Structures are given as C-alpha cells and as structure tokens.
C-alpha cells in the first residue's frame, strides 16, 4: 500500500498533468456515491447565512411561517442549510413521506441528537425518551391500560372534581377584582391540568395548583421556557446540532429546562411513592389501573428499575400538564378574539340537557369538537418534530419533487444520519391544505371544507397535533377530555374578552407566547375575564 502511494507520488512529480484526470475521477466517484442519496439535490431556499444557514431565518420569523413560505415556493419537500456547517436538514411537509416515517418506519427514525437530550432533561428517561422497538413497546404496554378508553370513563368524575377546584378559586379571584380581571391564561390552565394529572394518574392532590409542590413545579416550567426569547440562548440552541457535546456541559439555558423534572423527582415523586406503597401488597395488577399503581406494581415485581419509576412519574406529570396547558390557553385566547364563536359554543353547551359525560363529549357536542380541532390545528402543542434516520431508507412522496439535475422523483433515498424536520405547525396552516390556513374558523370542521388529502394521517382529526403511528401521543384521550371539561365549566361561568395586546410567539420545545412589550411577565397569554 505504502509502495503504491510512493509510486503515485513519484508519478505525479514526473507527470503533473495527471493530477487533473485523477481529481476528476475522485470527484465523479464521490458525486456518484452522494447522488445515490437525493437530499443533496433537493431544492434549497435562497439566502442562507454562512454561519447560521437557514436556521437564523427560522428563529427570526414567527414560528412556522418561514417553512410555509419556503414550501409555497419550493414544494412540500426541500432541504435547508443547518447552522455552523452541520449537515443539511430535510424538511418534509409531504403527507405520504410523513406517514411513512411516523407509521411505517417509526423505529428506524429516532429523536434527533438535538431533541433526545432535551427530552431527557425536560421529562426524564421515560416513555418519551426511549428508543428501539423492544424497549418502547415494553413501556407503552405497561402504561397504556391506565389511559385506555375504559379507564377514561372511570376517571371522568375525578377530572371534574380537579377542574372544579381550580375554577372555584378562579371565580373568587374574578369576583374580588370587581368582575374585570386581567389574566395570564397560562396561570389558570397550568393549575387546572396539573391538578387533574395529579389526581387521575398519581392519586395526589395538588390543591387546585396552590400547594407548595404545585407552585414550585409551575414556576420551574415558567423559568424553563424563558430562555426562548433571548438571542444568546437561541444561538446556543443552534450550536447543539453541530456540537451535541454541549448537552453535557453546565450551561444555564439548558439546565433550567430540567428544573421541573428535578423538583418532581427529588420531591413530590417520593411522597407519591411512599404514600401508596401498600398498593403493591398482594394485589391483582388488573384491579389497579391508575398509572401510579401500575408503575409501583411493576417496580415491586422487578419489571422496572427505580430510575425508570421516577422517570415515568416526572414524564407524565410534565407531559400531562404542559401541552394541554398551552392548547387550552390558546383556545380560550382565540375565543376572546372571536366573540361570535364564543357565543355559539356557549349556546351549544347551554342547550345540552344535564352534564355531558365522556361519551357525550365524543359525539354529541359537535361545535365544541370543532373548536378543539381548530385550536389544535393552529396551535399544536409541539410545533416541530425532528427525527434522524438510523438506517438507509427510501421515503415515498405524494407530491413529486424536481432535483437539481432536472430529474423529477417521487421517492427519496435517505442515508443514515439524515435529520428530518416535520414542521407540524406550518403544515397545519398551509393554504393548499386548509384554504385560509391562518384563520381561526371552527366551522371548517363542520362544513366539509377540510381537504381530504390530510386523511393520510391516521391520528386524531387526521392531523399531526398528537403525532401519528406507534409513537403518537399516549395521553390524547386524557388531553382532550380534560380540555373539554375545563372549557365547558369556564364557558358556563365566564366571558373572555380580548385585551388587544401585541402577543408574539416563540418555540421552547412547546409553543409559547409573550406579550411583546411585557417580556418581564415571562410566557403570557392575556385576556380580560368577566363573570356571567
Ligand atoms: C393537548 C394535549 C397534548 C398534545 C397536543 C400532545 C402532543 C404530543 C405529541 C405531538 C407527541 C409526539 C412527540 C414526539 O414523537 O416527539 C406526544 C407524545 C407523548 N405525549 Fe402527548 N400531547 C398532549 C397531551 C398529553 C397528555 C395529557 C399526556 C399524559 C397523560 C401526554 C403524554 C405523552 C407521552 C408520554 C408521549 C410520548 C409517547 C411515546 O413516545 O410513545 N400527552 N404528545
């Protein structure tokens, strides 16, 4: 080998003109290998910065907007330049391609090197973090029965009691404010969803969000998402794609993401476990279907480690609270901005005889359902999903794409390590799918105007708000039930009025909102509330 190299060196010294054909041959060989994977030949938006690639544009613009503009110009499948010279990112808005990844090849596409460490920090190494078919199915199998359709019916009265704890407190506050209270909706919805997940999944009373534990957890989440409005933090988040090692360093903007998990794991989780230890004494696991009991029984039988027990507790307290808090707040905010929709919803709920039960919520309140769908369409709790291919694959496309060599393809070969970004928020607002994609118009779900092409997704509402396939949201039923119960009670007692303040949106793993000239408030979605 060494001799061949020396011969080549001597040959090149004696005949330097050979350099050109050799380099050309190497380049052709390299290009042939790369061209097997077509991501490099996909359309790319103009104007990438050489430091931030296109990612600077992504964080500068309102969440989701720029991906939609690029899709309008380039089609449903394109690539963007990543920050700091990391490999180009494949942006996928094509329903067939997304369905392929989420439904068919879900275990070949892991959460990316940026996302997975963040999930570990935020939630713990539980169901949302685990990768690999065997381990994921094991965890899912353990937890699913506690969130089943049947169990949901049994939980219903607990959901009501917990929701009422918060709404009664809130009624007093509005009353004390002379019936014209300015409210940050996240405060109220956060207390309500935390109290519900505590009661139905962990047999724990968060006292309407007023207990010391509850206050600490809610404050920790507020602090955890706050770096999303600082430019320095945004640059740091961009650096993570190129230098994942930063995940292991004590960087404050990253550490605060884990505050709520730490508070739960070192505090309230101990108390929950201690108080319910007797559950495991000689019981039939089938007779205890709440989440905490299932976890404790599995732990005492040696099926899960102590580390996993704590990780699942923090995972479910935070996921049970976070996304529903955001969605519910955005929904009420839109109702305040659309008094006609609010009145129509109130009228439907008032006309319902008695109190709707779980089955009634599924089928007998169509306008409530439409409001819910429209809110989850415009404000999906998780605005982007990011996966990385672990194996070679070929992604099928519904809409063919023209490559830089002029070829039009409807299949995209992918190499391992390719990052795929699915911009849920952008996809769910595209005019090509929803006509007037940016408009809050619940009626679209009742008048048949929603494009049936979205039916490629098998998930709730044929949308991606709860994701799709084997890793879809395991808490969908509870999320929907709690939001419907809370909203029903709120419509009965309060009128929500727009404050016309300038609200801006940012992404901090979930979709967050700030009042533009009041950043000191932290995440905030303001409305004025009047008692009816
Ligand atoms: C409006 C409410 C909710 C929304 C919009 C929502 C959305 C989502 C989405 C998009 C995913 C997929 C994440 C990914 O693959 O990267 C997910 C997964 C998950 N969600 Fe939800 N969620 C909601 C409520 C809940 C609730 C109430 C719980 C707990 C009771 C929960 C627990 C989870 C868990 C544990 C996962 C990971 C599932 C897995 O990987 O197998 N979510 N959720």
TrEMBL record:
One Pfam family linked to the record: p450
Record GO terms (molecular function): heme binding; iron ion binding; monooxygenase activity; oxidoreductase activity, acting on paired donors, with incorporation or reduction of molecular oxygen
Cofactor(s) listed in the protein's UniProt record: heme
Natural source organism: Phanerochaete carnosa (strain HHB-10118-sp) (White-rot fungus)
Gene3D superfamilies: Cytochrome P450 (1.10.630.10)
InterPro entries referenced in this protein's UniProt entry, alphabetically: Cyt_P450, Cyt_P450_CS, Cyt_P450_E_grp-I, Cyt_P450_sf, Insect_CytP450_Detox
Protein family membership: Belongs to the cytochrome P450 family.
Lineage, top ranks: Eukaryota, Fungi, Dikarya, Basidiomycota, Agaricomycotina
Protein name as it appears in the record: Cytochrome P450
Residues given in the record as heme binding sites: 473
Keywords, alphabetical: Heme, Iron, Metal-binding, Monooxygenase, Oxidoreductase
């Amino acid at each position: 080998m060494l001799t061949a190299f020396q011969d080549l060196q001597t040959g090149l010294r004696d005949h330097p003109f050979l350099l050109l054909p050799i380099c050309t041959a190497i380049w052709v060989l390299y290009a042939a290998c790369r061209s097997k994977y077509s991501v490099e030949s996909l359309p790319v938006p103009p104007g990438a910065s050489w430091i931030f690639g296109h990612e600077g544009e992504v964080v500068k613009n309102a969440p989701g907007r720029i991906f939609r503009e690029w899709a309008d110009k380039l089609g449903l499948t394109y690539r963007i330049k990543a920050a700091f010279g990391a490999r180009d990112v494949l942006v996928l808005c094509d329903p067939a391609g997304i369905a392929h990844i989420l439904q068919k090849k879900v275990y070949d596409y892991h959460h990316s090197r940026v996302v997975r460490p963040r999930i570990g920090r935020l939630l713990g190494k539980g169901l949302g973090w685990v990768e690999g078919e065997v381990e994921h199915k094991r965890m899912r199998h353990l937890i699913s029965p506690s969130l089943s359709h049947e169990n949901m019916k049994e939980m219903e009265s607990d959901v009501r009691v917990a929701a009422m704890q918060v709404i009664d407190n809130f009624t007093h506050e509005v009353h004390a404010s002379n019936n014209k209270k300015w409210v940050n909706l996240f405060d109220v919805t956060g207390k309500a969803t935390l109290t519900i997940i505590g009661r139905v999944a962990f047999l724990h009373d968060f006292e309407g969000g007023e207990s010391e534990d509850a206050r600490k957890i809610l404050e920790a989440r507020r602090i955890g998402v706050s770096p999303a409005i600082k430019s320095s933090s945004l640059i740091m988040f961009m650096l993570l794609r190129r230098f994942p090692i930063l995940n292991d360093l004590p960087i404050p903007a990253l550490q605060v993401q884990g505050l709520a998990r730490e508070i739960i794991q070192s505090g309230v989780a101990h108390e929950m476990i201690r108080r319910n230890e007797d559950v495991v004494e000689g019981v039939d696991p089938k007779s205890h279907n709440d989440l905490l009991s299932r976890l404790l029984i599995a732990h005492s039988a040696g099926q899960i480690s102590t580390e996993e027990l704590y990780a699942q507790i923090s995972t479910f307290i935070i996921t049970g609270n976070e996304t529903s808090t955001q969605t519910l707040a955005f929904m009420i905010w839109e109702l305040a901005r659309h008094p006609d929709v609010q009145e129509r919803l109130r009228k439907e709920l008032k006309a319902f005889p008695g109190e709707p039960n779980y089955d009634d919520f599924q089928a007998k309140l169509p306008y409530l359902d439409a409001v819910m769908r429209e809110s989850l369409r415009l404000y999906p709790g998780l605005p982007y999903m990011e996966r990385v291919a672990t194996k070679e694959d070929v992604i099928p496309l519904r809409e063919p794409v023209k490559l830089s060599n002029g070829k039009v393809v409807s299949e995209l070969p992918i190499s391992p390590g390719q990052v795929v970004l699915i911009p849920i928020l952008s996809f769910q607002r595209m005019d090509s799918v929803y006509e007037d994609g940016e408009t809050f118009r619940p009626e679209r779900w009742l008048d048949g105007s929603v494009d049936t092409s979205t039916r490629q997704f098998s998930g709730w509402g044929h949308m991606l708000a709860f994701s799709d396939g084997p890793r879809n949201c395991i808490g969908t039923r509870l999320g929907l039930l709690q939001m419907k119960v809370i909203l029903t009670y709120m419509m009965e007692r309060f009128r929500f009025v727009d404050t016309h303040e300038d609200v801006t949106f940012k992404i901090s793993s979930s979709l967050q909102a700030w009042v533009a000239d009041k950043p000191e408030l932290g995440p905030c979605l303001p409305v004025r509330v009047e008692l009816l």
